[in-house]
Amino acid sequence: MGFDQYHEPPGELPSETRTFARLCASLTEEAEAIGWYEQRIAVETDPEAVSVMRDALGEEFKHFSMDLEFLLRRTPAWREVAQGILFQSGDIVEHGEEAESEAFEGGTGPGGAFADGSLGIGSLRGVSR
Amino acid sequence: MNHLLRGHAPISDIGWQTLDGEARERAGAALGARKLIDFSGPHGWTYSATNLGRSGPLSSAPGDGVSGRQRRVLPLVELRADFELSREELRDADRGADDVDLEALDTAAHQIARAENVAVFHGWDEAIVGISESSPYEQLSLGDAADKYPRQVAGAVEQLLCSGISGPYGLALGREQYRRVVETAEHGGYPLFDHLRKILEGPIVWAPGVRGAVVLSQRGGDFVFESGQDLSIGYQSHDADVVRLYLEESFSFHVATPEAAVALTP
């Protein structure tokens, strides 16, 4: 049985990191499924089959979004970047550059280590001692 | 610029990087509670209350034929530790000095981390009910003899199991108790720290401010820390010689399952 989501020996990883890796793997699988369903629907000619697959596609949207929200909640820096990009109108790349700058380069100025000016400590579960 | 007013401080980008990094390191080491409880947020400085899902009756109503209830919420508290730094020292940091005197920041970071631990584990009058004071079990004494700790900790774990509280379990130790654990080897030279880890199947954490020790379940969902503004450095004022800053955070804490922890007094 393989444990492909781990790139380091699982026994050396904190349980929080193992959970994080599982959800990252799940997120990848949901994104793949969305891509596959889009392709299948694009070539399918039977309307009933298309209807069934559209319903399944909606499930994948939900699963992907739940995985993503879980990961963002556990990763303040990722959340900071995502907040600057997701659900924004305008230039995606421009928003990405700005969000990255605010989240990771703010520590070099009065803006602080994170966009809210905090130290970005957050949860320390999984940090020993 | 947000409420921290960092943009008004006479501090360079390098200076802020130095201060943020120092505060993160010093506070992070002492924030023992956060290593053992659930953390939600940060939800921002404007976030003021945690939803408890509960309501209470109101004796009056604004009209005939209707009744009303009022929601109960848990207001967030604010913790703040003021400190001041020499501007000359900060100028030396800009020059590349690697031994800048940040003792006042270090002290403030430790104080606010310790206060957070105390609020979570022992409560804060009129604001927070802590883990140990909400625990329904009789508080046993840990004692001074470190070689007796495994017996007391195992007893606490067994107490939790009897109440149907599953593990793994974590152990928060006050400063003196932690020192005893790491310096003690049992018969045959087996480190006490490793023995306790085997009993708990979970983390052992240095938690300044904890009086004695607390054994608590790590299954999740029992102890909830909700962060408004996470620990941040803000600007107060300055003159020619010093800059006055502060460390601040807002949070609420509540115990969802009082039976999920056992307090061991010193």
Give structural notes.
The complex is a heterodimer of chains A (129) and B (266). With 129 residues, chain A is mainly alpha-helical. Chain A contains four helices and no strands. In chain A, helix 1 runs antiparallel to helix 2, helix 2 packs across helix 3 and helix 3 runs antiparallel to helix 4. The longest helix of chain A has 29 residues. The relative contact order of chain A is 0.10. With 266 residues, chain B is α/β, with parallel strands linked by helices. Helix content of chain B is 31%, strand content 28%. In chain B, the strands form three sheets. In chain B, strands 1, 4, 9, 10 and 11 form a five-stranded mixed β-sheet that branches. Chain B has a five-stranded mixed β-sheet with strand order 5-12-8-6-7. In chain B, strand 10 and strand 11 form a beta hairpin. In chain B, 41% of the residues are buried. The interface between A and B is medium-sized, with 23 and 40 residues.
Shape of chain A: flat
- The string of secondary-structure elements of chain B, in order, is HEEEEHHHEHEHHEEEEEE
Q: Structural class of chain A, please?
A: mainly alpha
Q: What structural class should be given to the helix and strand makeup of chain B?
A: alpha/beta
Tell me the strand percentage band of chain A.
under 5%
Q: Which word captures the global form of chain B?
A: flat
Largest interface: A-B, 23 and 40 residues
Number of helices of chain A: 4
Low-confidence stretches of chain B: none
Observed structural traits:
heterodimer, A: 129 residues, mainly alpha, flat, B: 266 residues, alpha/beta, 5-stranded mixed β-sheet, 31% helix
Concise structural overview:
Helices cover 63% and strands 0% of the residues of chain A. With 129 residues, chain A is an all-alpha fold. In chain B, strands 1, 4, 9, 10 and 11 form a 5-stranded mixed beta sheet that branches.
